[in-house]
Amino acid sequence: MMKPVTPAQAGVQIGVPLDSGLRRNDEAVFVMFHKIVPRFTLSVATLRRDPAAPGRALALTLGILLFWQLGRIGEFQPGRLLEPGNLRVMGNFLQGFYPPATDRDFLSLLARATLETLAIATAGIALALLLALPLSLLISQALSLSRLLPGPRRPGGILLRQVLRGLTMVLRGIPELVWALALVRVFGLGPAAGVLALALTYGGMLAKVYAEILESGDRRAARAIVASGGGRLAALGYGLLPGVAQELVSYTVYRWECALRAAVVMGFVGAGGLGQLMDQAMKMLNGGEAAAILLAFLLLVLAADGFSALLRRGLETVDRRRPAALGPLAWGLLLGLALAVAASFRFLELGLSALASVDTLTQVLRFAADFFPVDFSSEWRHKVFQGSLQTIAISALGTLLAMALGLLLALPSSRLWRGVTRLVLNTLRSVPELVWATLMVLAAGLGPFAGTLALALHTTGVLGRLFAEALENTPRQPRDALAVTGSRSFLAFLYGTLPGVLPQLAAYSLYRWEMNIRMAAILGFVGAGGLGQLLYVELSLFHYAQASTVIGAMLLLSLMVDGASAALRRRL
């Protein structure tokens, strides 16, 4: 029998420096060594019971109870997937996916719908920029004179910034699909509602992020320009923008990718593009047409991802210390954007003058007035509260399932299986949640369970990719140290890799939960429960006062989840 060794001696014997992941006096780590490494017999006197065990047990118990309660609210019933009726309907529909529709008339419609989706996304982002640029400059403190120069703060400026921040919060807090559903009532079926819906939601998002990027930049040059008598526009153009231009352009390109996916989803409420064609194919259970539409969308998304990645890599090669190097790139991007926007509006047969005409504004204001006064009756408040609970359950369950599935798909280490899992993850995230929800309604029936499955499938693709990248960037020393002592690969991962990367995985999951709460609120448009189903029914019945209450609940729910998620991320 080997004599007892100290923790420090054990660390030296396995060849791991004490400052490379195994901390001195880290008793929990050496308890693990005592259990999984037969050739070490650590002195019991040096090890005490893990003081964190009761807390972990309590957290696990509370987690199980919370999952059970969420499952009850969200009608989580996996057995419904195996019911004969659902299996028959889903099987017949999927059987029709092959071969995809290839007749000439349909392919002509598909090509036009694809171009329409691309044009809606581009035109929507262009209008969002027109809205976001002035808003971001007004709400940002980067150009505030009281921040750039010593002196008292101006109450008027502070009040204006707070009011405009509230406006951007409302714009981005209401999902673009809700805006589209409402604007279809004003502009009728077609791309106009989709373009304006993207402009409103993404305008709020871009304004918020642009303001944060400007505030995070180096303000010394801007301060010097203002102090020497220059104006704030000069401080912006010559002091702030050269240092943050890459981040601004990179985020705008990323948002254009997101707008492309959103443009597909908005077609489900009649806003044109591939989504409208997909909605018709789904309602007619035409699997061949649905398969062709999905393939077209996947190719469009992959092309957009490749283009944006290429553009971002080009931006990264520009030397930040040479602002003049940004000049040709900036002018080239502006020229390309102008041409793309002009072509998009021409293809969609939309004119800015028509969208901003007095008649259009009058129609919008008259329609908005129908939403007031808001219905706050006790019976309706109870229904909205139940819908809110269902929405929370759908988003939380979908995110939790995606965390587990995404982690499993992120683990394969062999080159072959890594390629297979990457293909699966890319396919899952490329299909919009609303399309998954439509398929899951066929597989599991109407209700929130279909929404949970839809969110889980799409989010698995998103989190799986992020988890894989995080695991690949994690230092290998702790895991290798456990592996060379004979530990099984699962235990080496559990105790050597996971503790170091867990905060990052949790942060990714919390951020995705913020996104999922907005999406869960609109999955009901295709019968997947929650607030979306309430809103769709009330708008279809022209009950605008009741719909206004639901939209308010969506906004409040989104803000609450954003705040809770941000607080949890700060603790991580």
TrEMBL record:
Parts of the chain that traverse the membrane: 118-139, 177-200, 258-278, 290-311, 323-345, 392-413, 434-457, 490-510, 517-536, 542-561
Keyword Ribosomal protein carried by entry: no
GO terms under cellular component: plasma membrane
Domain ABC transmembrane type-1 positions: 114-308, 388-565
Membrane topology designation: Multi-pass membrane protein
UniProt keywords, alphabetically: Cell membrane, Membrane, Transmembrane, Transmembrane helix, Transport
InterPro entries found in the cross-reference section: MetI-like, MetI-like_sf, PhnE/PtxC
Chief site of localization: membrane
Molecular function in Gene Ontology: ABC-type phosphonate transporter activity
Compartment annotation: Cell membrane
Pfam family for this entry, one: BPD_transp_1
Protein family according to the UniProt entry: Belongs to the binding-protein-dependent transport system permease family.
Name recorded for this polypeptide: Phosphate-import permease protein PhnE
Organism: Denitratisoma oestradiolicum
Gene name for this UniProt entry: phnE
